[in-house]
Amino acid sequence: MPKLRTVVVVAGAAVLVRRALRRRVQASPLWPMPALENPTSGRPRSRALRLLVASRETVADGVVQLRLEGRDLPRWEPGAHLDLVLPSGLVRQYSLCGDPEDTSSYTVAARLVEDGRGGSREVHEQVREGMELEVRGPRNRFPLVEAPSYVFVVGGIGITPVLPMLRALADGTPWRLLYGGRTRASMPFLEEIEKLGGDRVTVVAEDEAGLPDLDGLLADTSGDEAVYCCGPEGLMAAVEERCPQVRLERFAPRTSAAGNGAFEVELRCSGRTLTVPADSTVLAAVRAELPDTAYSCEQGFCGTCQQRVLEGEVEHRDELLTDAERADSMLICVSRARSERLVLDL
């Protein structure tokens, strides 16, 4: 009996240890690195949800809106986005454009990008009502801050994170919106926005009025306004040049004025040294040697490919990591080396 009692005690202790370890790993998949109180990167901490595609409708030329239904969904605030895991396994990010108070559904919209990497085409051609999609989030790196007034500059599908902001602003709050697109028919939610804003909204359809007058819009900004911009990279660069304090939402990797150069990467644990060509990525070079290296979005948003940096200077091009995280890690799908050599803990 004493031996049996000992076996039972040891087995019970082992079960408790395994459970504790599992909880610790779930709290911080980069364990034993410490978990942040409010994690902003790394492999998704939150449990993925399986949501029903309850409706799918065309809301503008080349733009479809999905309403994803569930129960007791996590709340979100204007500016938040979801990671959608598409049927093929691709992961893409889409801004939430519905009602933050609705805990029974999420609403997103996606524009078809003809020369894109396939995610938007999959949404348009393969996602149908009645199917289930895995989603992760919501996450918010584009929050609506308190300010005496607001200026919004939006291009095309970039209206999706801004629309909930406009709805959330208190009555009497001064704001202006410049909304540009190729044609009026290609601009989602245009009718609602014009009703919502009246003469505070300037709509510029390129086929009618040419390019937007950014100088005229931003000339009167005093620095007290909160300025937001979401849209094509060229538009965001132009706004940032005129207004450095602008808050930007990107869904493509940040580019570098210096361009790309080749460099070496040492994989310290594997004992290998790789060359990353100017026209490729660290992720591609690493996966050629270590095919099981985890990755997902390949755009610097989801954090799946985050790796610890032991030596070298990194040029960070992601939109996810905090300054503290950038001190010793990088997202190898988009970020590169400022130095001639990086050493990774791989």
Output the keywords.
346 residues, alpha/beta, six-stranded antiparallel sheet, five-stranded parallel sheet, 24% helix
Q: Could you characterize the architecture of this molecule?
A:
- 24% of the residues lie in helices and 28% in strands.
- Strand 10 (226-230), helix 7 (233-242) and strand 11 (247-249) form a beta-alpha-beta unit.
- The protein is α/β, with parallel strands linked by helices.
Strand percentage lies at: 25-35%
Low-confidence stretches: 20-45
Strand order, main sheet: write it out.
4-3-6-1-2-5
Structural class: alpha/beta
The tally of helices reads 9
Order of helices and strands: HEEEEEHEEHEHEHHEHEEEHEEHEEE
Count of individual beta strands = 18
Distance between the termini: 49 Å
Mean pLDDT reading: 85
Rg, alpha carbons: 23 Å
Sheet bearing the most strands, described? 6 strands, antiparallel
Residue share in helix: 10-25%
The dominant shape is globular
Task: List the topology elements.
Elements: H1 2-27, E1 49-60, E2 63-69, E3 81-85, E4 91-95, E5 105-111, H2 119-126, E6 132-139, E7 150-155, H3 159-168, E8 175-181, H4 190-197, E9 201-205, H5 206-209, H6 214-218, E10 226-230, H7 233-242, E11 247-249, E12 263-267, E13 272-276, H8 282-289, E14 306-311, E15 314-315, H9 323-326, E16 329-331, E17 336-337, E18 341-344
Parallel strand pairs: 7-8, 7-10, 8-9, 10-11, 12-18
Antiparallel strand pairs: 1-2, 1-6, 2-5, 3-4, 3-6, 12-13, 14-16, 14-18, 15-17
